[in-house]
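Entry 12.
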Amino acid sequence: MRSHSITEGITRRSVLGAALSAGAATATAGGLTGCGVSRRRDELFFGFHGDTVSIGVFQEIVRLYRRKYPRRRISYTYADSFGFFQRLPLMFRAGTAPDVMIVAESWVSGLSQLGGYADLTSFMRADGLTEDLWVPGSLNPARIGGEVLCLPLIVYPKGIAYNRTLLAKRGLPIPQPGWRERDFVETAAAVASGDDRVWGIPSSFGIFPYDVATVHGGLPFSVASRTMTATDERMVSAVELISDLIHKHRAMPTGAQSQYAVNFTSGIFGMDLFPGYALTALRQQIGTRFEWGVVPYPEEWVGTYQNNNVAIFDGSQRKEEAWHFVTFLSTDPDAQRLLKPIGTPALATSAAEWQRDLAPEDRELPWDQMIQGMAGQLVAYQGGIYNKVWDVLGQKVQAVQHHAVPVREALDEVQERGTEILRA
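Predicted 3D structure (tokens):
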């Protein structure tokens, strides 16, 4: 699930919300015909999605698999991310889902309640696969209800992008690893202190309630106990951070200030959230207009875990074949190497190789610290009634942003309304 904070396009989070609310009304249960190669009864069936670059990558991986294992038969289908996810719930119910499919971390939690994903625990145990094979936190999205529902493919390390040119103009020091939240706030406020209409950070920082909630390690509810935790102090401090950036420090425009509805690449913001997948887009869109860099999150921050995974359809009649292909995607160095254009490979050895192969200006970014930081990041559990709770939180965060509603008052209402939702 990608954020709009730096680059534009359909986010995996917006895909999840739209598909869960509208998928049953608009999707067809017949599968993804017309979106790729047709399904054949005598072959393993692989489903993937994405932009033209991602689709090309997965097609090349299928070709590699066929070369390495010529006796194994595999066909595939693909679609844009919205179209793929929109059809997935009904394909689960109809038994027509691909044997193997690519799923974002939010899709795992969002659709796990439908029972469409196979538990991979016994397969992992039989093959001796352990979590340390991949970069830290890679199985965080997979562990739901005591099961392991997917294996990792690529990950998206996160940090804070900063406009080196703008900071120098303000006479501000460059953020360094180990900085604290107070340094982040002071930098954002100082950037916005001039009279030339620049800002510390875009309003998109507070758009997604998932990112707001997890800043200090909080979530608005506990899935395990099915209770609300919106008034937890970690939630309160996170929303207060957003409120202070807007109303106290004037460092972040509100969403209502449409004249500032642009992103970090515009050059008028000192900092922004940096998801690893945005690297290429940043280089292309910024060019030589200003110098920029990346620093790990402030020490107090936790954040939301994001990655892409591969799962097996629980209704598949070819689970052993599917597992062979899944482990190929997730653990074969050659397959992982092909994934480099669309993310950081999840296999630890491949991630290290990926860093070494980056252009010099990209290699110097703090990838090691950002990757290590993923170990403690939270997966924003989505799906079913929990989406309604996220909607309520999003509305109240916007009320704090646009109308300066007191934070505790807003979260008290989230707690109350969320409790009613979870009891229904």
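Annotation: The first strand starts at residue 44 and ends at 49. Residues 385-403 form the longest helix (19 residues).
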